[in-house]
Amino acid sequence: MARFRNCIARAVARRQFTDATRTRVYRKLLTDMRAGVPLVKSLDRMVDFASRSGIRPGAPLACILTEWRERLSNGQSLAQAVRGWVPEAEEFLLDGQSGRELEEALQHCIELGSVQAGGSRAVLKAFAFPVVFLIGAALFLATTEGS
Questions:
Q1: How confident is the model at residue 69 (pLDDT cuts 50, 70, 90)?
Q2: What is the spatial distance between Cα 90 and Cα 107, in angstroms, rounded to a whole number?
């Protein structure tokens, strides 16, 4: 039963871990790294915030960041820690990076997320006009046929 609940919680967390959320996490990690805060300590702070100081330890973002923190504490790299939670392109950017290179890799992940979000908006805008036009034409034809 616990395994089933864990699968459900993981699926919910994966669904709520959007591109925007992931970008915010990367930005926070990058800011903390530039301030000299170790990754594990930065993740500790974010878990504390996401779980509302431990009141909601099962919050989706808190679960994700806890898993990352545990993997980092066990000696894995950031790329290994985020495996399964981020797109492969971002995982590839983070792979084998440390120190200054990791900061640059996080910056590239943030930029990649912005580019992808911009592309999605452009596609939505491209489809919006024809859809609105077709709905307007259908309404016009429906009202003129009744006359």
A1: very high
A2: 11
Q: Which of 26, 10, 20 is nearest to 67 (CA)?
A: 10
14/8 Cα distance (integer angstroms): 10
Rg (CA), the chain: 21
Asked if 90 and 112 touch (Cβ cutoff 8 Å), the reply is yes
Contact present, 109 and 85 (Cβ < 8 Å)? no
- In tens, the pLDDT along 72-126 reads 899 988 888 888 888 887 777 777 666 667 777 778 778 876 655 544 555 556 6
CA distance 142 to 147: 9
> How far is the C-alpha of 120 from the C-alpha of 57, rounded, in Å?
33
Rounded distance between C-alpha atoms, residue 80 and residue 26, angstroms: 15
Tokens at residue 56, please?
A: 């909601």
Longest dimension (CA), the chain: 75
The DSSP line for 31-98 is HHHHTT--HHHHHHHHHHHHTTTTT-TT-HHHHHHHHHHHHHHTT--HHHHTTTTS-HHHHHHHTT--
Number of continuous H segments (helices) and E segments (strands) in the chain: 7, 0
Here the tokens at position 66 are 């806890």
